[in-house]
């Protein structure tokens, strides 16, 4: 009898504890949610376009965006065409648009990126593609810092065969400026293309 009483008291206490836990929103076991730490990342952007007659000075929504850099594009495209008239190049500003409720936005530049295209008949000629890269990269390296908005982003080379096939090689400029000076041809191409 004493043993039965202990069992009954144990069951009642367990049921009561479970009822209190459910009432307080606590669910034991695998559904238990533990708080996770949050990470805050701060990015500094430089506004380059501020609207006049702003109808809304409130908050805005940030959206990743790219904008043309026409003056820098003209300068780079002319330099690239002087090496090969069939080639083309453009500069692009990458950052965030801050879009307000009334539709106007401001743009904050984070980096300046460069895109260079070259038509080719042979996408397997790594030596020729690397030599082309070796001719163009010093042109970009010589662009004065005051013409670069934000930081140097990347240089992306597109080698295109009849607009249907292409090889893309992306070079981080600081890495090129630091590590690959004097390297040309296949060695330079493979340094950035990921080819074995």
Descriptive terms for the model:
196 residues; 5 helices; alpha+beta; 6-stranded mixed beta sheet
Describe the structure.
The chain is 35% helix and 30% strand. By secondary structure, it is an alpha+beta fold. It has one domain (46-193). Strands 1, 2, 3, 4, 5 and 6 form a six-stranded mixed beta sheet that branches. Helix 2 packs across helix 3 (126-141) and helix 3 crosses helix 5 (185-193).
- Uncertain spans, ≥5 residues at pLDDT below 50? 15-44, 50-56
Care to count the β-strands? Answer: 6
Can you summarize the main beta sheet? 6 strands, mixed
- For the record, give the distance between the C-alpha atoms at the N and C termini, rounded to a whole number: 81 Å
The structure class reads: alpha+beta
- Global Rg: 30 Å
- Helical proportion? 25-40%
Q: What is the helix/strand order?
A: HEEHEEHEEHH
What is the general shape? elongated
Domain count, please report it.
Answer: 1
Indicate the proportion of strand residues. 25-35%
Number of helices, where a helix is a run of at least 4 consecutive DSSP H or I residues: 5
| Overall pLDDT confidence | 77
């Amino acid at each position: 009898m004493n043993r039965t009483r202990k069992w009954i008291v144990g069951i009642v206490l367990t049921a009561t504890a479970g009822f209190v836990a459910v009432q307080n929103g606590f669910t034991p076991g695998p559904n238990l949610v533990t708080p996770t730490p949050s990470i805050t990342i701060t990015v500094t952007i430089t506004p380059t376009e501020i609207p006049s007659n702003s109808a809304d000075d409130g908050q805005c929504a940030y959206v990743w965006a790219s904008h043309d850099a026409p003056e820098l594009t003209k300068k780079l495209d002319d330099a690239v065409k002087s090496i090969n008239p069939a080639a083309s190049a453009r500069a692009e500003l990458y950052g965030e648009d801050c879009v307000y409720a009334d539709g106007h936005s401001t743009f904050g530049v984070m980096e300046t990126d460069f895109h260079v295209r070259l038509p080719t008949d042979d996408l397997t000629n790594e030596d020729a593609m690397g030599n082309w890269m070796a001719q163009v990269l010093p042109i970009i390296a010589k662009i004065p810092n005051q013409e670069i908005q934000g930081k140097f982003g990347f240089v992306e080379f597109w080698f295109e065969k009849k607009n249907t096939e292409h090889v893309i090689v992306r070079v981080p400029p600081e890495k090129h400026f630091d590590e690959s000076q004097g390297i040309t041809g296949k060695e330079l191409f493979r340094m950035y293309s990921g080819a074995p």
